[in-house]
Specification:
Elements: H1 6-10, H2 15-21, E1 28-30, H3 36-41, H4 49-55, E2 60-63, E3 73-76, H5 81-86, E4 91-93, H6 96-99, H7 101-114, E5 129-135, E6 140-145, E7 148-156, E8 159-164, E9 176-177, H8 185-188, E10 204-208, E11 213-216, E12 221-226, E13 230-238, H9 242-254, H10 272-292, H11 298-304
Antiparallel strand pairs: 1-11, 2-3, 2-4, 4-5, 5-13, 6-9, 6-12, 7-11, 7-13, 8-10, 8-12
């Protein structure tokens, strides 16, 4: 288990081929391979729903039946999880990497092999995490897209996935579920086309069976239905954007300057003259940026911020 990494997860496809042809925008389904499932979950708690519950020290999310989406959920103690499951509620076990050190090792290896930047523990730009899903037969999740990527390993049972490319927004920074009562202001600014009202015509369907692996890119529409009682393990990674990297790097640089560390004074003042002076002061600082930082390279900026070694 110590050596389980991205190449083990993707086998028989090579990591090089995956990075060339699928990462980060094209989905990938990999049929079950002998030994893959055992290599990952054979010595972990993720062998069965009962073993996960027995070892659980954190709360468990139980999805409510009113809106078939994992974020419409309640938090339960582990002792109540199986009762909720028997009542047709999908169980979501967040932060499996905290609960199982072997899952944590695999998660870190996969993140490293993907080359995803973290920005250090304080920033955690990547937000790598592992989640186990126990879905009773007939349950699932409605059409939605995520702002992160997911690698799904099916452990038990069969689950049907329908996936479709997102033509409404490219590289979304937030999740969205079809039928949600509202769209965040941030996401609303990112849409460049209307939202579909049903599953797109160019959708594809795959059946996940024990040992199968599925890569779901950021922003890809997907919906699921458990054909049998299902247990799966996800490795999910936020997608640090160039905007994240640049703003983080620039903040480190700007905070080295006494002027930029000055109080942003008066921006919400009721005195319009004071507010105007504050805006003019920021404009002056911004104008001076081109002179103060004209010789800075991208590599130097990233190294100073600790984003590359």
């Amino acid at each position: 288990m110590q050596s389980f990494n991205l190449s083990d997860l993707l086998s028989p496809m090579s990591t090089e081929d995956f990075l060339k042809s699928h990462w980060p925008k094209e989905p990938l389904f990999i049929a079950a391979q002998t030994g893959k499932l055992q290599a990952l979950v054979g010595s972990t708690q993720v062998q069965s729903l009962e073993s996960i519950v027995a070892a659980r020290t954190l709360k468990v999310r139980a999805c409510l039946p009113d809106f078939d989406d994992e974020y419409s959920s309640i938090h339960l103690d582990s002792k109540d999880a199986l009762k909720a499951y028997r009542n047709q509620m999908t169980l979501v076990f967040d932060s499996m990497q905290i609960q199982d050190c072997k899952v944590a090792t695999a998660l870190n290896n996969i993140r490293r092999d993907l080359g995803l930047v973290t920005g250090g523990e304080e920033n955690n730009l990547c937000k790598a995490r592992s989640i186990a899903y126990a879905t009773p037969k007939g349950a699932g999740t409605r059409l939605h897209f995520d702002a992160n990527v997911n690698f799904i390993l099916q452990v038990k049972g069969k689950k049907s996935w329908i996936l479709a490319p997102n033509k409404s927004v490219v590289n979304p920074t937030e999740r969205f579920t079809m039928g949600a009562p509202e769209i965040s202001k941030a996401l609303e600014k990112q849409f460049h086309d209307v939202l579909p009202s049903e599953i797109p015509d160019d959708a594809i369907e795959v059946l996940m069976e024990p040992g199968c692996v599925l890569f779901v890119p950021r922003g890809y529409w997907h919906t699921t239905t458990a054909e049998e009682d299902s247990l799966s393990l996800n490795f999910t990674f936020s997608q640090p954007t160039w905007a994240d990297i640049f703003t983080k790097s620039m903040q480190e640089l700007l905070l080295a300057s006494p002027e930029w560390r000055g109080l942003a004074d008066g921006l919400e003042s009721k005195n319009t003259a004071r507010q105007k002076n504050a805006i003019e002061h920021l404009q002056k600082l911004m104008t001076n940026l081109s002179e103060d930082f004209s010789d800075i390279s991208a590599e130097g900026l990233l190294r100073d911020a600790g984003l590359v070694k």
